[in-house]
Specification:
With 399 residues, the protein is α/β, with parallel strands linked by helices. The protein is built from 16 helices and 13 strands.
């Protein structure tokens, strides 16, 4: 019997990550991954098939309609994988609001519900929607699903999700939602498998990438998180500021005379590590530069992470473990070291050698709080949720 394939799509602001999974038994196995880089000219398709990597220039453009570009991408992928055997595709969608409590089949009704949430995630939601529509246009009969970053946090208490504004606005959906849920769900599952007792305890996870957040988790369920109403909230990120006094926004819009669009662009694209350093939003560049402003950006980043760990521990009423994940969390020992130094008073002690080699457990045997490094895999969560809906007997609606 020919192996069947499943695809995953993870749309970011400047890239689309594509996972190719083979379903030869009951479990999906990753056999390839690709990234469409919108920032390069010409556009590039970075493809990895097993140990082999390919750099393929694309002729298409990243406009509002991605159908032609994705048609070209599918043709290139078809030279390496038999796309005729693709049975389903799953998409990462940042915002599900209160409309979705789990993964869903993507049809006209659910796509429209996702569209209505665009104003809650203006940077990410449109990217996912145009990709969904492009795949739907090219493969109208293909079973597609959506997996949401917000649904993992639905287990939080209403008190935690509430913002101190008039109640009527909370009732209209202005509340704390939380993001990076697919990553947290995967890492929580991995921790529960590797360290079952720790997985049942009080854990703060730090998803540190170009977008970054932290999450308080107890018994593998979300209790609180640093990101709230939007992906701007929480700790500083590559180009986003994190927590911001709302009075600063009033000052920008009032005395400084900025437009809403100008402020939005500054908050999403010009702030964070880039804004503080004046150099780069990539922490690797900042470590390499070593200048005063670069160091200040790193210090602010690690200060806010340590402070947020303490706030989340208050929600949990205790702390058993800290887990670092995502690009920075998994690969930057100096960041983990600087965060840990600010938590010495809590009894956090790192094993220097283990930390330097990115070992799974990086705390010392005498550390009062265990510290781990666990790689995340959002695409694995997407494909598992997609497969669960597919095998449940659901098929594309007639629409």
């Amino acid at each position: 019997m020919t192996d069947r394939l499943l695809l995953t799509f993870n749309a970011g602001s400047s890239t689309v990550k594509i996972g190719i999974f083979r379903l030869s038994g009951d479990e999906p196995e990753r056999v390839g991954k690709a990234v469409v880089d919108f920032a390069s000219q010409p556009l590039m398709l970075h493809l990895k098939e097993g140990p082999t990597q390919f750099e393929l220039p694309l002729e298409g453009e990243a406009g509002d309609d991605l159908a032609d570009l994705m048609d070209e991408v599918f043709r290139e992928l078809g030279k390496h994988f038999d796309l005729r055997t693709v049975i389903a595709a799953g998409h990462r969608i940042v915002h599900g609001g209160d409309a979705f409590d789990g993964p869903v089949e993507l049809n006209l009704e659910t796509i429209e519900k996702i569209r209505t949430l665009t104003e809650l995630a203006p940077l990410h939601q449109p990217q996912a929607l145009r990709l969904i529509r492009a795949v739907r246009h090219l493969r109208p009969a293909l079973f597609q699903t959506g997996s949401f970053d917000t649904t993992f946090h639905a287990t939080q208490q209403d008190l935690v999700r509430r913002i101190a504004i008039p109640r009527a606005y909370h009732d209209r959906g202005i509340k704390r939602y939380g993001f990076h849920g697919l990553s947290y769900r995967y890492v929580a599952g991995a921790l529960a498998r590797k360290e079952p007792e720790v997985g049942r305890g009080k854990v703060v996870m730090a998803h540190l990438g170009s977008g970054a957040s932290l999450c308080a988790i107890e018994n593998s369920q979300s209790r609180d998180t640093s990101m709230g109403f939007s992906t701007l909230d929480g700790i500083p990120m590559a180009t986003r500021p994190g927590w911001l006094d709302p009075g600063v926004l009033l000052h920008f819009l009032g005395p400084l005379g900025k437009t809403v669009r100008e402020v939005e662009d500054m908050l999403y694209h010009q702030s964070g590590l880039l804004g503080v350093s004046g150099l780069s939003g990539d922490i690797r560049d900042l470590f390499e530069d070593g200048g005063a402003q670069a160091q200040e950006a790193i210090d602010l980043f690690t200060l806010r992470i340590a402070g947020e760990i303490c706030r989340l521990a208050s929600t949990l009423e205790g702390l058993d473990a800290i887990v670092f994940t995502a690009g920075i969390g998994e690969n930057q020992p100096k960041v983990r070291e600087r965060v840990a130094e600010r938590l010495l008073w809590l009894g956090v002690e790192l094993d220097t050698a283990a930390n330097e080699r990115n070992a799974m457990k990086i705390s010392t045997p005498t550390s009062r709080i265990a510290v781990y490094v666990i790689p995340t895999d959002e695409e694995q969560m997407i494909v598992e949720e997609c497969l669960s809906l597919f095998t449940a007997g659901k098929r594309p609606a007639a629409s």
